[in-house]
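Renewal narrative, Specific Aim 1. Our central claim is that a sequence can be written position by position from structural information alone. The example that follows is taken directly from our test logs and has not been curated for this report. It begins with the structure tokens describing the chain, in the order in which they were read.
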């Protein structure tokens, strides 16, 4: 595969460059195991080790509790539990990166910068209009940049420690369920551009690799802004698959120049089929909680089979 091996940030750190080169070298030859976790105990991470004797190579962390505008007064118990469980997970990510050879990926279920109630990253829970962020001088734009500064401050320690991060903002804009996708793909793309320019040019977060998780043409930010393309794939019913059809749709609607990944997944991809087809997913990341801890989606035997297979790479 002829994927770009140089990060889109021309000043990317040596370790960020090395990570992208590694992902490209893996794609089509193997797949990196991955698991999202959003609590300090990292129950999913520990269970995988109990089941397989191994740990996932790619570990996902969530930044939702770092949102500056959480409305604690108008949040139900489920929302508050999720926020409290997620607190200080970046400290855990830092610890993991310093003690293991893990690859870190961060996503951000961003509580809307203005207004909102309960889980205000959902469109249904906020009146925040993402299109107004694009208007110079608007309150929405000022709040958007204020929140971005706060998040960049949190990421600064990883820059200082020279730890590369697969940074995955504004995911799933093929739908309207999150406020950043509620006004359509074109608006979401511009939000991504604003963040890229601020994080790269102003804050010089040169340890980040930029991951885009959406399969739609109108939203794709462009090859000058993306290092890894991905899709968050949740099938309506269980299927043992290499996700070939999703791969083909993804590259058709985005680009064939960037290394692809299954950036979230409900059902773990089938290693036997991948070993035959060599669909070039660099990594997959199973979602947290019931997608790993229970057997509703992936049985424990599914997990064992994935981690013991010669096509997969774990820690």
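The sequence written for that structure reads:
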């Amino acid at each position: 595969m002829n994927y770009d091996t140089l990060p889109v940030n021309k000043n990317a750190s040596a370790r960020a460059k090395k990570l992208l080169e590694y992902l490209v070298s893996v794609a089509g030859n193997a797949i990196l195991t991955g698991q999202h976790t959003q609590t300090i105990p990292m129950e999913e991470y520990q269970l995988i080790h109990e089941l397989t004797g191994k740990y996932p190579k790619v570990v996902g962390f969530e930044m939702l509790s770092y949102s500056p505008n959480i409305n604690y007064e108008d949040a139900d118990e489920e929302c508050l539990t999720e926020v409290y469980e997620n607190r200080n997970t970046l400290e855990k990510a830092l610890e993991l990166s310093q003690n293991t050879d893990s690859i870190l990926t961060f996503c951000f279920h961003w509580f809307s910068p203005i207004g909102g109630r309960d889980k205000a990253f959902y469109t249904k829970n906020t009146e925040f209009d993402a299109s107004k962020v694009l208007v110079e001088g608007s309150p929405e734009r000022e709040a958007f940049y204020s929140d971005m500064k706060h998040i960049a401050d949190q990421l600064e320690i990883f820059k200082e420690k020279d730890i590369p991060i697969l940074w995955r903002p504004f995911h799933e804009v093929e739908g309207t369920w999150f406020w950043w996708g509620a006004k359509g793909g074109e608006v979401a793309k511009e939000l991504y551009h604003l963040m890229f320019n601020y994080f790269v040019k102003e804050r010089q977060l040169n340890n980040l690799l930029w991951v885009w998780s959406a399969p739609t043409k109108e939203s794709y930010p462009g090859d000058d802004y993306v290092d890894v393309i991905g899709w968050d794939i949740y099938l309506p019913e269980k299927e043992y698959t290499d996700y070939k059809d999703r791969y083909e749709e993804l590259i058709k609607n985005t680009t064939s120049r960037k290394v692809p990944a299954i950036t979230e997944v409900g059902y773990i991809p089938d290693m036997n089929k991948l070993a035959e087809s060599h669909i070039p997913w660099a990594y997959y990341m199973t979602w947290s909680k019931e997608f790993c801890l229970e057997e509703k989606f992936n049985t424990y035997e599914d997990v064992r089979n994935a981690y013991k297979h010669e096509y997969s790479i774990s820690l």
